[in-house]
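Session log. Operator J.P. requested a structure for one protein chain; no other inputs attached. Running the standard single-chain path with token output.
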Amino acid sequence: MRIRLVHNPGAGSEDHRQEEIVHWLRQAGHQVRAGLVGEFLRAPSSSRDADLVLVAGGDGTVRKVALALLGQEIPLGILPLGTANNLARSLGLDQPVRALIQGLASFVRRGFDVGVASGPWGERFFLEGFGVGFFSDYLAALNQPGIAQWAEDLREEQGMLRDYIFLPQLLAGYASRGWELCVDGAALSGDYFLVETLNTTSVGPFDGLAGRADAGDGSLDLVTLGDGEIQTFCDVLTSRAEGDAQPFPFPVRRFRELELRCRDEYLHFDGDFWPDARAHAEPSVVWVSVRPSALTVLCPQIGI
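Structure written below.
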């Protein structure tokens, strides 16, 4: 297989050098052309002669490369080197890098949906999820001047544990807010502290929030949580900080189109937040929809 390897050497805490990954790929019989993320993003069309674009990095790196491949037929592969690796896990790729490389030849192509959020501030694509409320506010707090570098250093040292420790602290003083929601034509307005639309089972540090989500079914999954669920949500996060992988027990609603009316709110798409939204004092409408099989991914047959 002709592989275009896109490597982020700064992802996660594992030390996988580009030369080492290239060596393993060539040992497995593949032709490899390797480069860094920035090089690929400047000229994504340069990979049209490859059979596979293989990303060695975390969810953020995978997202950048995946969106650069929209509209192209070349498949995307993942070697997970990040902290959460939500996208890799959703595809059955939560294995050691060398084991994944040895299995590449047996992997199959699958369609992978892409979510779209559009509003007065433009359009954003997401692979994991989009939402408002608690998680968006947490991301915004982590990006405040004076906090961002400290938070990043702590993440490198403690990984997901950082989130499991600090999220319950923020949640302790958090309250639901009123949201106007319309889901596939049905009103679902109410008071919620978290509104999340997911394409995969997890978003950010919320592993398994939508445990049965399928990124290849042409739909998205909605989780809406109010004050009555705060304590349970906090208990799950606390248990994970203590090393207990307790599942999220919340109901999930599958949908294709969602309309959200909001005012003066941070919105997030995957691990980034949409700060322009908060600059609008007037209520604004955001439309969320799905583009079925907008990407082609390479994964084991048990994936998706």
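Operator note: The mean pLDDT is 90.
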